[in-house]
Design a protein that fits this description.
The complex is a heterodimer.
Chain A lengths: L3 E12 L7 E12 L3 E5 L6 H8 L7 E6 L2 E2 L6 H10 E4 L13 H11 L6 H14 L16 H13 L5 E5 L7 H18 L2 E6 L2 H7 L2 E6 L2 E7 H6 L4 H9 L5 H6 L15 E4 L2 E3 L4
Parallel strand pairs in A: 3-8, 3-9, 6-7, 7-8
Antiparallel strand pairs in A: 1-2, 1-4, 4-5, 9-10, 10-12, 11-12
Helix pairs in contact in A: 3-4, 3-5, 4-5
Chain B lengths: L5 E12 L2 E13 L4 E5 L6 H9 L6 E10 L2 E2 L5 H7 L4 E4 L3 H4 L6 H12 L4 H14 L5 H4 L9 H13 L5 E5 L7 H18 L2 E6 L2 H7 L2 E6 L2 E7 H6 L4 H8 L49 E2 L5 E2 L15 H21 L1
Parallel strand pairs in B: 3-8, 3-9, 6-7, 7-8
Antiparallel strand pairs in B: 1-2, 1-4, 4-5, 9-10, 10-12, 11-12
The chains are: A alpha/beta, B alpha/beta.
């Protein structure tokens, strides 16, 4: 029996409901995230992966469906202390390290905000110690505590964003495209940092990205989304090496490969159909796909 | 030997900023052969866009060309009066920008925007221009071109908008096309369509392309030759096979190793430690020395010259000097090459 930290049942999120421009951003999605794993969610822009991530952290209220976090239904949390407790256990790392940090707050205040809200520290020197410890954890020198975001490079800013997420010692972190605004060599640095932190802090990640090769590298299991639906779900190896859904196959075939010889003979498929509304079906142990038999 | 279409010689460009003078491009020499795709690879701030903006003479006001020349068609573009430059821009020299939303005028119908370079540069009636615009819209894969002609940019998806930008750039059949990260803002499936389109059109029109990107996967698919830029300098250049299979500069090797592939296992990905140097006060020697585990003492003191690796391949690293110790950096890259060679073979067999 695997230990599920998060269970998502028939999650739907519709925007502009009842209007002519109603959008079914997430349309009946169900999956689980096991404690201690990295769950990768891939898909193109508009596939609903970010909306799903935000529903999981109670940043959006779902139109219908349940999000069960550690046995509790997140969508039913109403009392202030319940919500606060949930938000302390979960955190988010955002895509753009330029717009997700308040330019008028010092690095100390950015990282300490959560500590203050959740009353994790008793006094100022405690707070500074905690901020310094978190900064060291993500590879930033605590000497920079009084500096402002504009003084840092993109990679360093993303480290500040990660430090902010980890300062309150969450157990579940949703990272929404944390690499796409960064340079290649810096992307590798941040991925390695995230791997290290996962081990050091016993974290569970949901890693949202469109770059399937990076998702493959970091994830244990991968879910593939398209037009608000989850089309395929399985271990990272299964999804990459034995993709079953034609959309997954087309997505994989479009990923450029850093090898000129192979890149020139590689076949690419396109998938332009609207997928039929089918439930996920287990075809191999742990490998699910939304295809008719 | 055919003549180069464009020759950039010893180009240096400075920017005046509040913090001081930024030496964004430092002594860059590049040649563009006819009909080829030259990929300019590097990270943000490496000077790739500044180099091509200098070619187009589209630098902002605080930039200054300190030295060098850009030779095109027997003339130095840097010395050309603005009027003559205007005759070249959008006509013989064209550019595709990264973000198709900001490259298009949101208040102008796309048909009119595509016709604009034609009406500017060629002596055509509006009706002739319209016919040509419709033809190129069809060529770049816009269905129902006649109806879409009167649409506004917001009525198109990101991929379709980029097709319109490409149509605008190619309508006058330019000799040189600069593509500045044209697929970075797009999804992978759309990216592969746009790359295929650029390849097909440049073959049809014989256009030479400078393709700026930081994605080595994209480079492998589209480039004939590659120049690797770092901290305003070119560190290595060669054919696409030279760069991917025999990289010499530790930075090139580092970039290749930090690019993830599907066959990587945990721990295989290597990152380059540290950050890029500040170009207000650039390092004296090899700019990559402070991030290079194999840096030699001389790397910190003197910029290495270009060492010849083969007729097509040159690299600026002291590791190629006769006195340098032999270091082997590319074990993992050789494994990757073998892996993909097998896959390529399998793919070829499947074809038979």
């Amino acid at each position: 029996m695997t230990d599920n930290l998060v269970e998502v049942h028939h999650l739907k999120k519709y925007f502009h409901q009842g209007r002519s421009d109603e959008v079914h951003a997430v349309d009946d999605v169900s999956f689980e995230i096991h404690r201690g794993e990295v769950f990768g969610l891939v898909g193109e822009s508009g596939s609903g992966k970010t909306t799903t991530g935000r529903c999981l952290l109670d940043l959006y209220s779902p139109t219908s469906g349940d999000v069960i976090y550690d046995g509790e239904d997140v969508t039913k949390l109403k009392k202030r202390h319940e919500l606060k407790n949930f938000h302390q256990k979960t955190a988010m790392i955002f895509q753009d390290p330029y717009s997700s940090l308040d330019p008028r707050m010092s690095v100390r205040d950015i990282i300490a905000e959560g500590l203050r809200i959740h009353q994790k520290v008793a006094n100022r020197s405690d707070l500074d110690d905690k901020v310094a410890e978190t900064m060291k954890l993500v590879g930033l020198s605590p000497d920079f505590m009084n500096r402002y975001p504009y003084e840092f490079s993109g990679g360093q800013r993303q480290r500040i964003g990660i430090a902010r997420a980890l300062a309150v010692e969450p157990e579940f972190v949703v990272a929404d495209e944390p690499l796409s605004a960064l340079d290649v060599s810096v992307q590798a640095q941040i991925v390695k940092l995230m791997e290290h932190l996962k081990a050091a802090r016993n974290l569970t990640y949901m890693f949202i990205a469109h770059d399937i090769s990076m998702v493959k590298y970091i994830s244990d299991r991968i879910g593939v989304m398209f037009h608000g639906k989850l089309l395929e779900l399985g271990t990272a190896d299964e999804i990459v090496n034995h993709p079953l859904h034609p959309y997954t196959q087309s997505l994989l075939s479009a990923v450029p490969v850093p090898d000129p010889t192979y890149e020139r003979v590689r076949k690419q498929f396109t998938y332009e159909k609207e997928p039929a509304n089918l439930p996920l079906r287990e075809v191999r142990p742990g490998h699910f796909v939304a295809l008719a038999e | 030997m055919t003549e180069d279409v464009l020759t950039i010689k010893h180009l240096s460009v400075d920017f005046q900023t509040l913090e001081g003078t930024v030496h964004a491009v430092r002594d860059v020499t590049l040649k563009l052969h006819p009909g080829e795709v030259l990929a300019l690879v590097g990270e943000s701030g490496s000077g790739k866009s500044v180099t091509t903006k200098t070619v187009m003479q589209l630098l902002p006001k605080n930039a200054k060309v300190v030295s060098g020349s850009v030779e095109y068609d027997g003339r130095d573009l840097l010395k050309l009066p603005e009027k003559e430059l205007q005759n070249l821009r959008g006509n013989e020299l064209a550019e595709i920008f990264q973000d198709p939303m900001t490259a298009l005028d949101p208040t102008m119908r796309v048909g009119k925007q595509i016709m604009e370079p034609l009406l500017q540069h060629q002596d055509l009636t509006k009706d002739e221009a319209r016919q040509k615009a419709l033809a190129i819209m069809e060529k770049v894969g816009i269905v129902n071109a006649k109806e879409r002609f009167r649409n506004f940019p917001y009525q198109f998806s990101g991929g379709m908008r980029q097709r319109i930008v490409i149509a605008m750039a190619l309508i006058c059949h330019p000799k040189v096309l600069i593509a500045d990260e044209p697929t970075t803002a797009l999804d992978v499936t759309i990216q592969s369509q746009i790359l295929a389109l650029i390849k097909q059109l440049k073959d049809e029109l014989g256009t030479a392309v400078i393709f700026i990107t930081h994605d080595l996967g994209v480079v492998a698919g589209i480039a004939d030759r590659v120049a690797v830029m770092y901290a305003g300098r070119i560190l290595e250049f060669g054919t696409v096979n030279d760069i991917f299979y025999h990289p010499q500069h530790p930075y090139t090797v580092g970039l290749l190793k930090s690019t993830p592939t599907m066959d990587m296992n945990e721990g295989d990905l290597e990152s380059i430690p540290g950050t890029t140097p500040n170009l207000i006060d650039p390092p004296v020697g090899d700019p990559f020395a402070n991030r290079n585990r194999h840096a030699l003492n001389i790397d910190f003191e003197k910029m290495p010259p270009f060492f010849k690796v083969s007729d097509t391949h040159y690299a600026a690293t002291w590791l190629l000097d006769k006195q340098a110790p032999k270091v082997h950096l590319t074990d993992k890259l050789e494994q990757r090459r073998e892996h993909y060679a097998k896959l390529a073979e399998r793919e070829a067999q499947a074809d038979d």
